[in-house]
Amino acid sequence: MSAVTHGRFEDVERSTAAPFHYAFHHDVPDEFVRLPEPTASEGWRQAMTELLPGAEPEAQDAASEGLRRQLPLLSARENVLLTAMCIGTEEVDGGERLSMGLLAVTVRPSGHSPAQRLFTAEGIYQATAKKFFSEVSEDQLEEISFPLGEGLQGPQDMLLATKLPCGPGVMSTSLRTLRLPPLEAGIAVPPLPVAALQLIVPAPHSYCVYVTISTPSVFLLDSYSARLAHIGRSLKFGEPPADD
Fold this sequence. Notes:
alpha+beta, 9-stranded antiparallel sheet, 3-stranded antiparallel sheet, 23% helix, globular
């Protein structure tokens, strides 16, 4: 699946009311199915048919209704350009395990100039490191080296400074426990372990692209990291070629 994103959002984070423009395109792994807006009345049956082939219509309707209610809690609420999901199985230690992932692509204004692109990425890295590791002692931190870049790893979090074909970026992995509201009154939902993998890439100017994959399949981090890396490597700013 190829995603093309262009348009404008009102810039509410700066003192001026001028909009910022965005234009970029990227590939999304084929297993992801695009989701409609949670408030949309159309498109959900088709999405559930693709995500849950062979399931009874009642099961598809129930899954659709549950996802529509939970989606705003699981994904960013503002400047969302794409939300997609994958459901399937993957091999883990010789056995099949359930694999679920939620993809969200958003943009946020930053106001940086072309000359400040690397500086903006460094600032994002430092701010994320402070958020992740402010309460972690030095002896708990580990330097890591991946093909995408260099970074740090703590008890639950990993942070990388990346160099992508489209420019500098910041990639992170965070393990957390998510508490969702009950689907029905009086029926509590047990805490859900979730891994959030995020790639932040400053555009040539004015805004940053945020690509986030959230998954309860925490035993498949390598697999979902590869999916995120694929999106990052295919990310290009500007309008796509005419034959895309």
